[in-house]
Every structure is written in C-alpha cells, then in structure tokens.
Amino acid sequence: MSLPDLLQHPSADPVSLYLTSLPSPASRRSMTASLQALSGLARDLSGQTGRVDWTALDPATATALRAACRSRWAPATTNRHMACLRGVVKAAWLAGAMDRDVAEACRAGLANVPAAHRGPDPSARLVTDTELARIFDLLATEPGPRARRD
What we know:
Layout lengths: L2 H6 L5 H8 L3 H22 L12 H14 L2 H20 L5 H10 L19 H13 L3 H5 L1
C-alpha cells in the first residue's frame, strides 16, 4: 500500500505511515530498532506493558523521553531516536490522529541534543604557519592536477 493510500485508510497507524515513508530498507531497519528502543523506554517510564500508543504522546512525556534518552545513549543515538519519534508524530498529525498544536509541541520537545566533544573543539584551532608550509610542501611533491587543486 502506498503512503497516500495509507493516509486515506481510516485506521492509519502512524508508525506504519512513518516507516513506509522512509526511502530505503536500511533506514526502515534502523528506525524500527529506534522505535523498539523508545517503546521499551516509554514502558519503563510509565510502568505500563503492551504496545505504546504514540498518538497519545503529550509534550511533557516527549520531553521526559528525550531526557531519558540523553541519560542512556550517546548524542548521535539519541538524535536518531528523536528523529524517528518526530517522524512518527508528524505521521500521526498527517493521519489526523493527533492535534496540530500537540504534534508541534511534541516535536519541539524531541529536539536534537548537541554533539558531545571530547577535548577542545578542533574547528576553533588555527593552523600554524609551519603546519601550512608542510601541507603545501607535501602537495607540491604530488603529481597531477588534484594536488595543485588541493
């Protein structure tokens, strides 16, 4: 079933809608794993069992999930999980299963976390004259147009 067909279906499941919208099987596998991890986390936080109803997500719970993710996983993993859940929330809103204002507030609560830097930020360091001279000397020994360009 195509995405437009799924949206017209009265019992459109936002998780299926979201996963169907992903462009590759690898993306679907990755986001399915994220949803499984998030479902387990949501069940742990709520003390409930069974399937998680993402259409009932509220902004406070979304923010709590983000905080719990930050305490458990690295920023890149947390951001993948947050992107996945933002996609499910958007699909729920598109399917009419979630109010627009609630969906927007939830998506705001699921914002990406900053990347963790270990040590000083390398982009803030200036290249010394000696390092620059060594780079140009090395490139001068390389044959061909690519070395000149580089």
